[in-house]
Fold this sequence. Notes:
Number of helices: 16
Largest sheet: 5 strands, parallel
Oligomer: single chain
Strand content: 5-15%
CATH topology of the largest domain: ABC transporter transmembrane region fold
Shape: elongated
Amino acid sequence: MHANRKREWILGLVQGVIGLVAACLMAVGLAEFFQQNIGQHPQPAEWFFGGLALRWISHVVNIVLLARWQSATEAEVSHRLDELALGPSPHSLTDLERGGEHVVEGVGISAAQSAAYASMAGIVLLAVTGGWLSTLIYLGLQALSVPMYIRAGRRSAAFSIEYDERRRALREQQLRVLESLPELRGVGAVDYVADGIGAVTDAEHRVVRRAVQATIGSSLVTDFVGGVTIGLVAMVVGFALMQSRLGLDRGMVALFVTIEMVTRFRAYASEFHRRDDLARGQALLNDHALVARVVAASAVWELDAVTAPGVSTPTNWRVLPGERWVLRGPSGVGKSSLIDVALGLRAPDTGTVMVPSQRVGVVRASSHFLTGTVRDNLALGENFGDEEMITLLNHVSGLPVGRAFLDQKLHDLGSQLSDGERVRVALARALLHHAEVLVLDDVAALLDESSRRALSTYLRQRSDLTIVEAGHLFIVQQPTHELSLAAVS
């Protein structure tokens, strides 16, 4: 991203210089056209058309390069978001996604800024051709407008931060509603919650309207100051021409250079208010502390001096391929929290985490299912045969299962299944999709003794699996390692 910014700066500097050169060519060509054709048949002005062609080519190149760089930045941001989504982060996915949008939308700001700076070299041309009064008018009006730009920029930044917060609140509330929809429907609170989401959405829209109003106000300031500047410079040049104190070519150069500088300044001012958004987005995506380190092939997980909610004593944990771990401890000591940290689903309070690079299957009592049949929830769009699904379900349940079970309809997050059936389907789904690491979070108590025994026998045969189980009862009967959180909490 820093390389893109450097390229943008160079592009902007080149664009600014080309703009001044094109303005001078067009001004000289137009002056020559009027001087040579007063009272005669019009003759073409080669300098004018040359400057016009130079400006057009420069504009096309600018559009093409910025579009290409924006596409590359979008791909880079997407890859970065994938990394951050897989690792522990104190920021929500909504924040990270919005930060990525700011970075993509910010492509071109550095180019506009450096082009505006480069165009300021036109002040020397303005002073030489238009005189001290034209220069004083330009500098004075631009100086007076700076506080207005700064104020508008601060208002825009404040609205942007408020909008991001409103948007995050809306997304989080929508997710909570989706997760608790069956319970809300059962108590008849769906309409109430929908009204709450509507209120948050309306608040978000109000913030957007205020931000748009602030941006429009800033644009009006820019346009007004720019128009007044050009008008006053044109008036000064016109009086000088009438009094023969200034040649037509110098007067035209002064006017065209003023227009060029005002245009560049306006272009940067329109992007100016997004600088803070871009800076916030880059800070999020460039925070290397948020990126989960991928473990080398020799280990599945590594936790170094990690603490988490419920786990107050720093915990070191290293899981190797093929090992069977059980996490013991009473409720509330942080077993699930430690698993979430190890999976990269939440950031540790302290310490560092290396998350697994292997495919992980997580089975919990709260495992979610989609609306559809059991078959749909097992296959998840992949082309698995019924016999393969039935065989795997028989292995994990120890009971015969037929196609009728696969045809069973699920809705309300799978509430039609018993707790034991939910565990078996979630476990079969993980194994069907070739999980290399299996995480069982407090599910053994949901199975009857015969089912636990059958599943334990099956998993003992799967030496290719790395298994981590937390709970009070355990499916894994011969673990290679144990971690008692009661001893460290």
